[in-house]
Amino acid sequence: MAAVSRFTLPSWTTIAPVLGVLLLAVTWGRDLAPVLVALVALVLAVTVLAAVHHAEVVALRVGEPFGSLVLAVAVTIIEVALIVTLMASGGPEASSLARDTVFAAVMITTNGIVGIALLLGALKHGTTLFNAEGSGGALATVMTLATLTLVLPTFTTTTPGPEFSGPQLAFAALASLVLYALFVFTQTVRHRDFFLPVTEDGVIEAEEHAEAPSSKATLASLGLLLVALVAVVGLAKIESPAIEAGVKAAGFPPSFVGVVIALLVLLPETIAAARAALRDRIQTSLNLGYGSAIASIGLTIPTIALATIWLDGPLLLGLGPMQMILLLLTVLVSVLTVVPGRATRLQGGVHLLLLAAFLFLAVNP
Fold first, then answer.
1. Domains (ranges, CATH) in the chain?
2. Which of 6, 11, 87, 259 could join 94 in a cystine, given CB atoms 3.0 to 4.6 angstroms apart?
3. pLDDT digit string (tens) for 183-197?
4. CA distance 184 to 70
5. CA distance 347 to 344
6. Contact of 232 with 16, CB cutoff 8 Å
């Protein structure tokens, strides 16, 4: 008797990106009823989770630190696309959207992702261990980029207000690209061992022994990751009027839209970092956190600078006094966290408190 072939249904991680693109095609350019807005939000959340899964499959195949780099670049593509799209369709408030989103990304990654990873890792495994050389270099890159692009515009005198002149913006964009490229080369080629997990004795650990996916599975996940990213960018753009209306209805400052965008696009990074921390791979979590901050500044600012050629209105990049104080405090706390090469739940709690302060003051400046 002939064997009956069984039809295997695709997994939700395969269905979600395709469903997201189909929903994007149906809803693009239309005024949506509240029910459809809620449906788009639900599909968007599931698609983000699917993107995390496929990024982790690719990461497992290429190994660390390449895996963290893949997810960081993927998330930054979402962020850049959203910022440029909203700035192109926005009014005067859009002039500070890039600054608000990038600064929010820096605070969420250096305090939120790092804090969650350290807290979860310490709660499950005790003292968390990581490579201070690699993490310290990444932190230095983040803070240099943040100062060059977000602090200096407040103090330059060529143009009034917290913005660069044309040549100054070009220099900041070029410097951001150079620093990003230098970091990627250091992380993936010259000093890759600085970004690998370490043991109690300080010896570099080998890669995880989980079986790597096949080339076919990796290529499939890479393709689905790209589809998921397209869906996330598009669906988030569709949700943006609802986000802006919700922020306005709640009485929050318009700058809080940038915080919402950063929270949305960094959700994949946060989930992946938390999973790595629970597996006692704190270095992977720090690679994700600091790598995302570097990519957020190093790729977003040059893209926005290029976009100003056809975008109308000023580009406000300089932070205010309160934001600079939060950034300075983040720098000091992060240095004290990274230098020892180990941390406890206390450090995780401190970083999360800084994130809470940032979010509270973003609502009540």
1. 13-363 (1.20.1420.30)
2. 87
3. 888 888 777 777 877
4. 11
5. 6
6. no
